[in-house]
Design brief:
This protein has 13 helices and 16 strands. By secondary structure, it is α/β, with parallel strands linked by helices. Helix 1 packs parallel to helix 3 and helix 5 crosses helix 11. The radius of gyration is 25 Å and the shape is elongated.
């Protein structure tokens, strides 16, 4: 994988306090996002909770004390905050305790107040012991230097966020000029289609139900947020447009209750470019708006690959296998291969992809956050080698589709 650790082995802490067992493993990598995977009694808590708050508090306190003790904070430095110390952090936190109280919409957020203090105590003691050792001073110094860079970027990102908020405060501003919003203000039923290209966006706008369906065409390819810092991500027009349309904010400012649409549906072409755009959007949601995924708000639209026309009707096929099955007993027909959404008329797009009674959409979820993080790093990260190795190992380059010889293709 291309997440290069800053040191090895990872820091490991475990202890028990007041019938609460706490174990923590943490590492820093040469990336910009934080990834904390937490568990309570072996149950994943993707929404975090009081145990994560206790860990974050301890980490910030210990690293601030370390920086002061070793004179690593300079007068000209931007004051550190907790976010700075968590840039590039990968941590696994496990808590085992009695009388667990889960909260949140999906009941995956720990609510026990006592867990915060207990985790804070164990982590503070363990981290202080680690960084007080002479042999680990260089590790502490590396983390502080990484935090210093993060603080500088945070200031740049703050300006970018302020710009985004200012633009978002004006409904119908230039930022959201391409958004065709719905008339309903009921976020429980509203849907937002994020559509690749202006041509497909135009068809989607014509074919949608204007009451509850909104359409946001993308004018270009969004930035791959896996390879960029937050300030660079926010500088991308497409990303800012999506943030403005959803209304939730991102990162630490994210508020799920402000979401304007219950379903966010990605519509992209059935080709490599379309797949890349889909991956870029899912990467952005996973890194900066992960509750949208864990709460089940993100979907992928499944437009048909083929239209099989006979004299009286048209059949839509979503896979090569389905095409072969439908055409095997047909005598005379033509096949249209939809290379892009823009090739479909608005009524075809409505009947196959927009209409809730007829369409096929896939809900995006995360069963294993650690595995998902690993896959995103593999496919969307900087390193080409691991990607190439995986493709060479698993891809089948010899598959040739063999269709009925009676077909005529448009």
């Amino acid at each position: 994988m291309d997440q290069n650790p800053l040191f090895f082995p990872p820091i490991y802490i475990e202890n028990e306090i007041e019938d609460t067992y706490v174990s923590l493993a943490l590492q820093y990598v040469d990336k910009y996002t934080e990834n904390i995977f937490s568990y309570v009694n072996n149950i994943p808590t993707p929404e975090g909770g009081t145990h994560e708050v206790g860990f974050k508090t301890a980490l910030t306190k210990v690293l601030n004390d370390f920086a002061k003790k070793h004179n690593l904070i300079k007068d000209k430095d931007i004051p550190f905050i907790g976010d700075d110390f968590r840039e590039g952090l990968v941590a696994v936190l496990s808590v085992k305790m009695k009388n667990v109280q889960f909260e949140g919409q999906t009941k995956t957020k720990l609510g026990n107040v006592e867990a915060r203090q207990r985790v804070d105590s164990v982590c503070t003691q363990g981290l202080n012991e680690f960084f007080s050792s002479k042999k680990n001073e260089n590790i502490g110094t590396m983390i502080i230097e990484k935090a210093r860079g993060a603080a500088k970027v945070r200031e740049a990102a703050k300006k970018a966020k302020e710009l985004t908020r200012a633009k978002n405060s004006i409904e119908g501003s230039m930022l959201l000029g391409e958004l065709a919003n719905c008339t309903s203000r009921n976020s429980d039923i509203n849907e937002l289609f994020i559509v690749e290209g202006k041509s497909a966006g135009g068809s989607a706008k014509q074919g949608r139900d204007r009451y509850f369906q909104a359409v946001l065409p993308l004018r270009g390819k969004p930035l791959n947020s896996e390879k960029k810092r937050i300030d660079q991500v926010l500088a991308n027009e497409e990303i800012r447009t999506i943030i403005g349309a959803l209304g939730t904010g991102i990162g630490e400012d994210f508020k799920l209750e402000n979401l304007k649409y219950n379903k966010i549906i990605i519509l992209s072409d059935a080709d490599p470019d379309g797949m890349h755009i889909r991956c870029i959007l899912l990467t952005f949601f996973f890194r900066y708006m992960r509750p949208l995924i864990t709460n089940g708000n993100v979907y992928v639209g499944m437009p048909p690959l083929y239209g099989v026309k006979t004299k009286d009707q048209i059949h839509y096929c979503y896979t090569d296998e389905e095409l072969a099955e439908i055409t095997k007993d047909m005598k005379k027909y033509t096949i249209q291969r939809y290379k892009g959404l823009g090739e479909m008329n608005y009524d075809q797009l409505r009947d196959t992809t927009l209409d809730p009674a007829k369409r096929s959409i896939i809900r995006v979820g995360v069963e294993d956050a650690v595995a998902a993080d690993r896959e995103i790093t593999l496919w969307m990260g900087d390193e080409i080698g691991p990607r190439k190795e995986y493709i060479n190992k698993h891809a089948n380059f010899n598959k040739i589709d063999d269709f009925n010889s009676n077909t005529e293709e448009e």
